Amino acid sequence: MSDNIDTPSTQEQPPSSAQEAETNEKAPAAPPSLIFLADRIREKFPEAVIAAKEWRGDLAVTVTREALHAICRFLRDDPEMDFDYIVHVSSVDWPDEPERFEVVYEVYSIRKRHRIRIKTRVPEHDCIVDSMTDIWRGAEFMEREVFDMMGIRFRNHPDLRRILMPDDYTEGYPLRKDFPLQGKGWRDTFEFLNDPAN
How many folded domains does the chain comprise? Predict the structure, then answer.
C-alpha cells in the first residue's frame, strides 16, 4: 500500500489582479520634474544660463557669475518661484579647470515646496562673486564659511571675515585641494600636554 502525501506545489502562481493593484499602490511615485524652474530662468535670462541638469528629483542650474545676483533676486521675488529660504552655500574646488572654483547656492520655497541649486564658476586669480545677503539674510554666515575654507570673496558682504579659523590664520584655505592633508607642518612641532616624549 502506497502512502499519498500532499505537498505544496513548488511552481509559483502568477499574482492575482488584487495583488498587482496592491503592489502598484506601494510603488513610490516619481518626484515631479522641476525642469520648468530652469525654463523660467532661461526665459527671463536667456544669455545667463550655461547648463541645467535634473537628477533624482534635484535640479541644478549653472549661470554666469555676472547674472548670479539678479537671478537669485528673481528666484526670491517671482511669485512662481518664491524661493524664500536659503538652505546652504557651498563651494567645490576643481584645480585642473580654468574656472577653478564653483559656488553653489541651494534655496527652497516653503510655500511651493520646491528647491533648486544655482551654481556659478570663478577662476583662481579672480575668485569673487556678489554676496546674496541682501536677498537672503541667512547667507551671511554661510558665505563667511566659504570664504574661510576656500578663499572665495563675496562682494558687498556686511562682515566678510573668518568664521572657523583664527582671524590671524595665514596658512591658506583648508578645503582647497592643494592644501596638505597634514596641514602646513605646525602639528609636527606642537608640544602636547602630558606627552612622555617631551
Answer: 1
